[in-house]
Design a protein that fits this description.
Elements: H1 2-7, H2 10-18, E1 45-46, E2 49-50, H3 52-70, E3 106-110, H4 117-126, H5 130-135, E4 140-144, H6 149-156, E5 164-169, H7 176-193, H8 198-201, E6 202-205, H9 209-215, E7 222-223, H10 238-248, H11 250-269, H12 276-290, E8 295-298, H13 308-320, E9 338-341, H14 344-348, H15 352-368
Parallel strand pairs: 3-4, 3-5, 5-6, 6-7, 8-9
Antiparallel strand pairs: 1-2
């Protein structure tokens, strides 16, 4: 498999990705989500520009904004203008409150696909981590993705618009499901608090600032990400980090980024036999394309990883769900697996039963052949 990786220039392609080459040929874009986790001293170039300073400017804004929302100090909002979060800490912490002066203790993050699955996965994983659990006391974070009204009802159940901040996450601000839910929650806020409350109860994560403005959200309250970030890899951009920082605090987010950065460094610099991401990828090729196994079960025995399977379904299956090569040649073999899974002990009492039956059949055939 390592010989195959060498023959297909995998390691040269990794370097091209790191250098900001437009390896996403169908959209003529770089694929540079590793820059989202970069140290401030790192350099990642896109079209001749180092994008790391822009990344850290957004991280600083997330840090400042989440601190303003999370730490209520009993000060009146009348003395503070909303854009003060951009002035490097002029606002005392905890001064971003709701329209009626109440602290915003609850957050609803609206998105779908890559604007939802990664954030929910990490949020669930952190719920019982001691530091994160302590940091989230008195706060609630919910995600809204489905356009089914039941999902809206569940997301808003027991919440009061007076104490709720809505984060609308959409790169283009045109995604049908996200914008329908965003309009629904805007109406939810307006019906209780009036149209003027939108600026204090809704913020956006988007690249389309004109559409954010047209929707009624102050463009100063929009958090940027970039078209070199594929949606399914965006959890370490403002897409995932803003909701996570609001719930768990920015210090926890920094630790999450540091962990991602450590894996990036292994991927970008480790030799093939010590390169964990490359080895995992090669195992997928071996199982799917060579052994022709159509599925892969993800059975995490830690309940905190209960949203891991849905996240990997998108990260892996949307990436590898292709019937042609990069140059358009039709494939005559499978290029990816169907991922599915449940937390471990649950799976033992459902799909594991079929695993046992299949294995018994294989054993019988082997014994029959001597």
């Amino acid at each position: 498999m390592l010989d195959l990786a060498e023959a297909t220039d995998v390691f040269q392609k990794i370097q091209k990705m790191k250098e900001g080459a437009k390896i996403n040929t169908s959209e003529d874009r770089p694929v540079l989500h590793v820059a989202l986790r970069a140290n401030s001293s790192d350099v990642y170039m896109v079209d001749g520009k180092n994008v790391v300073p822009d990344v850290h400017a957004v991280l600083h804004k997330i840090n400042e904004f989440s601190t303003l929302v999370r730490k209520y100090v009993g000060l009146s909002t009348a003395a503070f203008d909303l854009p003060c979060l951009l002035t490097n800490g002029v606002c005392p912490s905890g001064t971003w409150k709701g329209h009626t002066g109440k602290a915003l203790t609850d957050v609803i993050a609206i998105g779908i696909g890559g604007s939802y699955l990664g954030g929910e996965f990490v949020s669930e994983a952190l719920k019982t981590e001691p530091k994160a659990k302590n940091a989230s006391k008195g706060r609630r974070l919910r995600f809204l993705a489905n356009v089914d009204p039941i999902d809206v009802a569940r997301a808003t159940a027991d919440l009061d618009p007076e104490t709720t901040l809505v984060v609308v996450i959409s790169k283009t601000f045109t995604t049908a499901e996200t914008m329908l839910n965003a309009r629904t929650l805007r109406n939810w806020v307006v019906q209780k608090l009036g149209a003027q409350a939108v600026s204090k109860h809704m913020v956006a994560v988007s690249t389309a600032i004109d559409k954010v403005t047209a929707f009624g959200i102050d463009p100063k309250n929009a958090f940027q990400f970039w078209d070199w970030v594929g949606g399914r890899y965006s959890v370490t951009s403002a897409v995932g980090l803003l909701p996570l920082a609001l719930q768990y605090g920015y210090e926890v987010v920094e630790q999450f980024l540091a962990g991602a950065r450590s894996v990036d460094q292994n991927f970008l610099t480790a030799p093939p036999r010590a390169n964990l991401p490359v080895l995992l990828g090669l195992l997928g090729v071996w199982n799917s394309s060579f052994l022709e196994y159509p599925t892969r079960a993800l059975a995490c025995y830690c309940q905190a990883l209960n949203k891991f399977a849905p996240h990997i379904q998108q990260v892996d299956m949307e990436s590898n769900g292709k019937r042609v090569t990069a140059d358009g040649t039709a494939l005559d073999f499978s290029a990816g697996e169907i991922d599915f899974g449940e937390p471990g002990t649950n799976g033992q009492h459902s799909f594991f039963q079929l695993f046992h039956q299949v294995w018994n059949c294989v054993e019988s055939m082997c014994w029959g052949c001597g």
